[in-house]
Amino acid sequence: YAVFNVNYRFAPRYTWPAQMHDLNQALQWIADNATQYQLDLKRINAWGYSSGAHLAALIGGFNTPAGSRDLPRIRSVVAGGIPSDLRKYSGSPIVMRFMGGDRHEMPERYAQASPAYHVSSDDPPVFLYHGKLDFLVTVDQSTDYYEALLAAGVDAELYLHGWREHATMFLFGGDAENRAIRFLNRNNAVEQLLAAEQS
To answer: In the chain, which stretches have pLDDT less than 50?
Structure first.
């Protein structure tokens, strides 16, 4: 894997969808520089945790972002501690700073910013992992999203850790991250690629 650590603008100075514009720009940069870095544009994946997971799932679930050139599709998504449905948050200072207001003031904006709202049958496979003791981003954000993906016929996996909260799941993901890598290997046909190179 070639890995690019993509940064994006932060709230409250920049509210959503500025962050999606940044990810789209990064994806365009990857596409424009694919030859230099010997990248396979049919095997681009997104991995993030917490706010990064939220954006990874969004860029995976969107087809062609409005106002952009044709961008390569995301092959699969790994999302840890994901806030998948911002419509569940009301009065949260963190989410309000990100969105630029409360859910009741802008319900459609909150929906558009929620990966759960965009679930469709053509979404890429998704691997979710979450700590059951997470009270910052409660575990139902992953379990409900997982059920929605399955209901839409999307290949999805869910890993829950019984003794992790938000920060410790990020710092000590352990087996969740190992399983996520196996998930990526399978969905990117890594074993077949290696076998082909060796033959």
So the answer is: 64-67
